[in-house]
């Protein structure tokens, strides 16, 4: 499996709730920069957190790639989601080329757990994109092919 994990772009510091924070203009630019790295990739699905900034990030990637399938919104990609649940959900998808759009601390924990078997993953700034390859359902069984920062 090939898995890309994208953290949302820079967001407003405040909103009525954390889930309602929107991307800034700079955040949108960051996302477009990261989306360009996915142009030649054979994605089968874009799956995103329900939080506004992740939805905006996923929509920008979707439009940049001219992706046909709609973005899938799932409750298991929020900042405090359980990383083991996320791994189980990825495996249940049964897909080979997937982009996940989510938040810290989940994105770093997920990359660390999939590649090293522990929660300490690489630093993932806003709009950072990690590329992994291997067996997604098993902890520590994927290789990090690269982490790209916007």
**Gyration radius from CA atoms, angstroms:** 14 Å
Mean pLDDT: 96
**CATH second-level architecture:** 3-Layer(aba) Sandwich
For the report, how would you describe the main beta sheet?
Answer: 6 strands, mixed
Q: Strands of the biggest beta sheet: in what spatial order?
A: 3-2-4-1-5-6
SS content category? alpha/beta
Quickly count the domains.
Answer: 1
Written overview of the protein:
The chain is α/β, with parallel strands linked by helices and 150 residues long. The chain has a single domain (2-148), classed as Rossmann fold (3-Layer(aba) Sandwich). Helix content is 32%, strand content 21%. The protein is built from four helices and six strands, in the order E-H-E-H-E-H-E-H-E-E. The chain has helices at 25-36, 52-65, 83-93, 106-116, and strands at 2-7, 45-48, 72-73, 97-102, 129-134, 142-148. It has a six-stranded mixed sheet with strand order 3-2-4-1-5-6, with helices on both faces. The longest helix is centred in the middle third of the chain and has 14 residues, at 52-65.
What's the gist of this structure?
This protein has 150 residues and is of the alpha/beta class. Helices cover 32% and strands 21% of the residues.
């Amino acid at each position: 499996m090939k898995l890309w994990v994208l953290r949302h772009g820079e967001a407003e510091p405040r909103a009525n709730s954390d889930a309602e924070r929107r991307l800034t203009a700079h955040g949108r630019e960051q996302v477009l920069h990261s989306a360009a790295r996915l142009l030649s990739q054979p994605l089968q699905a874009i799956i995103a957190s329900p939080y506004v900034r992740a939805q905006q990030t996923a929509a920008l990637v979707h439009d940049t790639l001219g992706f046909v399938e709609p973005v899938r919104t799932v409750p298991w990609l929020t900042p405090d989601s359980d990383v083991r649940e996320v791994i189980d959900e990825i495996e249940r998808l049964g897909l080979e080329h997937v982009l996940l759009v989510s938040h810290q601390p989940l994105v770093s924990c997920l990359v660390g757990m999939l590649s090293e078997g522990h929660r300490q993953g690489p630093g993932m700034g806003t709009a950072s994109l990690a590329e992994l390859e291997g067996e997604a359902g098993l902890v520590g069984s994927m290789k990090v092919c690269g982490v790209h920062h916007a």
